[in-house]
Structure formats: structure tokens, C-alpha cells
Amino acid sequence: MKEISINEMKKLDFFQEIPCSMIQTILNQSMVVSYEKPEVIFHAKDNVNFVYIIISGKASIYNITKHGNRKIIFILGKGNLINHNILSEKPVSVFCEAVCPLKLLQIRKKDFLKWMDQEPALMHAVMRSYERYLWRMSHQLKNTTGNMYLERKIAAKLWKLGRDFGVETEDGIKIDVELTMNLLADLLGAPRENVSRACKNLSSRELLIYKNRHFILPMPDELAAFYKS
């Protein structure tokens, strides 16, 4: 496997403020691991002794409800810290799964903790990741409580996915994540049939296009206005 350079690491959000000397130390004592869809990186209740950072691809963080349904909490892309149990010795409480070909930097937790003590910039990178995680979680909670219609929940979720993973096409912003209706239902914690029906309603409003397992947002600003209304 091709070695990763410091310059490549610097392009990832997590490492942008970390000194090159520390990045080189991390690279010297870590390894790149690859997963294919839908391989699981870790299960809930696993004791995870590694820290994982996404180099390329995307991973979903999810849990299983008391009814046995999967509820996706986040879809994370490159440059994201996956696991947020770095200080804790308790088992993880969530599952992590590849949603497309995925490459991770795998670092021994004990080494990572030592480097956090030595390098303030690494500690700051972890704190920024935790803050982003909490901010996104608070918005998820806001959108999953109260009387928000399912169409608005879908619009909010797709707009945010378009912001994070969107690429421009002639039809609009294409979300560069393969999303089946089942996967979108897992993201929303709603029945698949209801999600499919709501997507058809949004399509009839010309707010989204669904083809080849990808969503396209023809008018992202109008979609945002719809879910905020």
C-alpha cells in the first residue's frame, strides 16, 4: 500500500494545525487499514483499543433501537475522528460501518494519549472534533423532537448531507453518498414506506431528484427555506 505523506495528512481537517514533526511520529507508529461496504469497524460493547481517523471514504455511526431497528447518528467523511471514547476504558456504545470503500488511519490508543499530553495542537484537534460532534448531535435532537413534519426532516438531513458531501453537477448538488431509501430511513429513524412517500412529495415540489441511489438537490437554497419554514 502506498505510504501517506505529511502533505496528504495536512489536507485532512484533523491534522491541519498539527506540527509536521508530530504528524510524522504518528505516521511512523500507525497503520492504514481498509474496509469495504458494509464491513463493520467496531460493534457496540466492543473494547476498542485504537483511534481511527478517516483518510478516504465514508463511515456511518449508528445504534440499534429497543425495537431492533438501526438508527444512523452520523455519516462521517475524510478527516474525521471516528471514535470518541479516547479517554474512557469502557466499551463503545455505538456501531461503525463502512458505507463505501474506506481507508482509516489506525493508531494505538495508548500512543495517541501519550502524544496528546506532549502536543497541545493534537489535544486541540480532538477537542474541535468533540465540539463538532456535540454541535451536530444537538441539531439532530432538535430535528427529531416536536412536531416537525417528515418532509422537513428529510429536507434538513439532505441539505446537510449536500453541504458535507455535495458535488456540483448540471442537475444540481449531488450528494456523493450512495443512499438507498432504507439507509435514509435509518438516518431518520422512520419507516421506509413513510420516507419513500415523503421523498416523492419533495420530488413533486422539484426540491430533490433521486436516481441511481443518489440524491440531487436542484435548488439547495429553496430546500433549506422549506425545512426552516
Give structural notes.
The chain is an alpha+beta fold. It has 2 domains: 6-143, Jelly Rolls (Sandwich), CATH 2.60.120; 150-228, Arc Repressor Mutant, subunit A, CATH 1.10.10. The chain contains 8 helices and 11 strands. The strands form 3 sheets. A 4-stranded antiparallel beta sheet has the order 2-6-4-5. Strands 8-9-11-10 form a 4-stranded antiparallel beta sheet. It has a 3-stranded antiparallel beta sheet with strand order 1-7-3. β4 and β5 (70-76) form a beta hairpin. α6 (181-188) crosses α7 (192-204). The chain starts with 5 loop residues before the first helix and ends with a helix. The model has no long low-confidence stretch (mean pLDDT 92). InterPro entries: cNMP-bd_dom, cNMP-bd_dom_sf, Env_Response_Regulators, HTH_CRP, RmlC-like_jellyroll, WH-like_DNA-bd_sf, WH_DNA-bd_sf. Keywords: DNA-binding, Transcription, Transcription regulation. Residues 14-133 form the Cyclic nucleotide-binding domain. Residues 148-221 form the HTH crp-type domain. GO terms for molecular function: DNA binding; DNA-binding transcription factor activity.
Tell me the layout of helices and strands.
Elements: H1 6-10, H2 20-28, E1 30-35, E2 40-42, E3 50-56, E4 59-64, E5 70-76, E6 95-98, E7 102-108, H3 109-118, H4 120-143, H5 150-165, E8 166-169, E9 172-175, H6 181-188, H7 192-204, E10 209-211, E11 214-217, H8 220-228
Antiparallel strand pairs: 1-7, 2-6, 3-7, 4-5, 4-6, 8-9, 9-11, 10-11
Helix pairs in contact: 3-4, 5-7, 5-8, 6-7
Separation of the first and last Cα atoms: 49 Å
- CATH homology superfamily of the largest domain: Jelly Rolls
> Can you give the helix content as a percent range?
40-55%
Largest sheet: spatial strand order: 2-6-4-5
How many domain units?
2
What would you say the CATH architecture of the largest domain is?
Answer: Sandwich
Strand coverage percent: 15-25%
How many β strands by DSSP?
Answer: 11
Total helical elements: 8
Label the structural class.
alpha+beta
Please mark out the parts with pLDDT under 50 across 5 or more consecutive residues, or reply none.
none
Mean pLDDT: 92
Spatial shape: globular
What does the main sheet amount to?
Answer: 4 strands, antiparallel
CATH class categorisation of the largest domain: Mainly Beta
